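Lab notebook page, bench 4
Experiment: in silico fold of construct C2
Operator: M.H.
Input chain length: 137 residues
Purpose: comparison with the prior construct
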Amino acid sequence: MGALGVALGPVVGGALVAVAGWRWIFLVNVPVCALTVVLLRRHVAESPPDPARRTDLAGLLLGVAALAGLTAGFITAGGRGWLAPLPGALLGAGLLGALFAGSGTSGRGMTLHLPLTVAAIGYLLAIGLTLAIRAEK
């Protein structure tokens, strides 16, 4: 099924753009999502809540910070260049955050080593801000 989507996606997308315009490609997601919701509700049983599992708020925040660092690094690298200090610091902080978030995985979910992670994020933020300030001068 995935191969069929890979083969037909560009063809159908190109035809849709040629006939209706590029904005219509976003409307394709609406019926696909609606069909997915209907099929999931019909064929997948909801799992019972497990009180032993909690939301790992620190891990979620670390993941968001890592993705934000990577995104900001790629965006600033386009304007300042890949060898500029600010994109390097942002990309490095994002990669290190992703490594810390991924290193805590276990069979029961994410476990985060909070003191090490907080120290690493603080250290990387200090380096990134220092490099950013130096780059602006």
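Observations: The chain has two domains: 2-43, 57-136. The beta strands are 105-106, 109-110.
Next step: discuss at group meeting.
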